[in-house]
Structures are given as C-alpha cells and as structure tokens.
Amino acid sequence: MKFSKKTLAAALATPLMAGILSAQALAADITLTLGHVDPPEWQTSKKGAATQVFKQLVEAESGGRIEVNVYPNGQLGGETDLIQSAQDATLSMAMVSGAFSKVCKEAAVLDTPYLFPSAPIAWKVLDGQFGKDLSQHCLEKTGLRTLAYGETGFRNFTNSKRPISEPKDLEGLKIRVMTVPLFVEMVKSMGGEPTPIAWPEVPSALSTGVVDGQENPVSVIAANKFYELQKYITLDNHIYGTDFLVINEAVYQGLEEKDRALIQRAAIIAGTVGRAIQQVNSAKGLGELAENGMEITSLTAEQQAQFQAAAQPAVVEWLKTEIEPEWVDKALNAVKTASAD
C-alpha cells in the first residue's frame, strides 16, 4: 500500500490509522515459535484457543515487535517431540499436557485420582503457591518455564457392558488406559483390568471387544463418537487433565523485562481462555452423548467418596515410590486448603 506524503500526514493525524500504519511499518524483531498437537480452531480446541489468544495479545501489545508463529495439529511432532524441541530451543514454546511428566516426573502428582473435587478448586491450586512451586521445580529440572496452566478436562469411564456407580462395578471390565503406569495402577486398584493401548488403536479395540471400555474427558468422547461403541458413561471425574504452556528459559531470559511481563500476562489470559473453551466443550459434549443414547451415571458425593477411597490410597502409595513423597503431600494439602476457603 502506497501513500503520498500529504495523505500519509493526514492519516497519521488519526490515532487509529497511525497505530495501523505503525504496525504495518514495523517488522518484528523477535519471533517466537509455539507448537501444540490440537486443531487450530479456537471455538472447539482448547489449545487452539489458548495459543491464538496468546499470539494476538503478544503481537498487538508489542506493536508488532514480537511475532508469534503457531504450529498446531502436531505439525512439529507429538508432545514428546515438542518438549524436546523446546528444551533444545529449536522451538521457543510449546503447549502440552500429559507428556510433560516425562521430563518433570513431579508433574504427575496432578494425575492423582480424585485429587480435585471441581475445576474451580483445580484452578485455585494451580494458580496459587502450589502451582508456582511446581513450575519452579520443573524449570530447574527441564529448562522450561511454565508460564500458565490450561485444562484438558476431567476424565470419565465409559464401557459397553453395564452402568458403573461404585468401584466394584469395574471388576472384570477391560479398560483401555494410556500407556502410563499411574493409570494402570488406578484402574487396578478398583478391580478393573487396565489395558494400555496407543491412542490410534482405541476405536478398533473398542469395536472388536479387545477392551470393554476406556476413560477420557467428555469432550474427547463426544468428538470421537465413542457413543457409537459405548453404551454407558460414569461422570466420576477421576483425573483432572492439565495443560502446560511452557517457554525455553534461555529464550525467556533473553527478552527485555517489559516483554517478559507482556508474555506472562498474555499466557495467563491464554490459559484461562483454554479452560473456558474446554468447559464449553464438556457441556456441549455431554448433551451430545445423551442425544445419541448413552446412559449417563452422575455420582452422589457419597458415591464419589467410595471411588476416591478405593483408588487414591493405592496410587498415592505407588506415586511416592516414583517421586519425592513431599510433592504428593503438598498437592493433597493444597487441595484441602483451597477447598476450605
């Protein structure tokens, strides 16, 4: 776009046009790359929403000095690849979930069964001192700074055999779990038969009867139309999934103080937006499951306590052999304090 000197002067007299032209004229002098494995659509993708908000805020508030290039859909690899790339600084940032505990084992404490009684309690814990302590610990171990926590949602059991309203109803059921030892211990503690299966093989395993059921957030169950393969779902909310928005520490420290503050603010807003989108998707997904004939079992507080009593002690005991026991105690105490406020 070309302007004569007269036209340009007139345009610059308008504050809005001055801002637009200044942004166009300025080439970014800092470029951040950010990868994740989810779709890019902000209306339906929690990571898609969070990363787009982060990009827009950083670019706008920096006046175009900082450019954020987002790579969704696993374009740069799976979550393990993204974490490695961020550690190597071939990627500035990543938004990942469960895989983060592979490089910072203490992050697995967030997967303690029935740890969080609700999403708002989880937010208070993660955004409070416990979340800050975990972020600092993982930074020291990995070289990755957690700027903010997002949400992948509460996980719930589905199956094709019978309703599950108490732990003993899981006995004898073959339940697909992620290839993560903690999930194996959880299902085993309640009498089920945990069957680790890679994600791409899950639909086939469900349709052929290799497993009777699986566990995932409602949004994932609906998006993958598992209602075509599973009759029953129990809203037991056994594990709250967390997203980690991380940045390479050397990249972060290489920024001016004002830009570090800008990026931190944008990250917190991005994490909050991701949580909101996940909450909307869960609500919409539950309606979709009902419309498609799934029988939904909602637990009373007493029933929820039965599941917690069956699963949490066994997994806590196992987890304390995998990580420093103090992290488990700190997490449990943080939830207790947040619940009492």
Automatic annotation (TrEMBL):
Give any single GO term for biological process: transmembrane transport
What is the residue range of the signal peptide feature? 1-27
Name of the featured protein: Tripartite ATP-independent transporter solute receptor, DctP family
Decide whether keyword Coiled coil is in the record. Answer: no
Task: Give the main localization category.
Answer: other
Localization in the cell: Cell envelope
Tree of life domain: Bacteria
- The answer on whether this UniProt entry bears the keyword Signal reads yes
Which family is this protein grouped under?
Answer: Belongs to the bacterial solute-binding protein 7 family.
- PANTHER family assigned: PTHR33376, SIALIC ACID-BINDING PERIPLASMIC PROTEIN SIAP (PTHR33376:SF4)
**InterPro entries membership:** DctP_fam, TRAP_DctP, TRAP_DctP_sf
Q: Which UniProt keywords apply?
A: Receptor, Signal, Transport
Q: Which organism is it from?
A: Marinobacterium lutimaris
GO (cellular component) term, any one: outer membrane-bounded periplasmic space
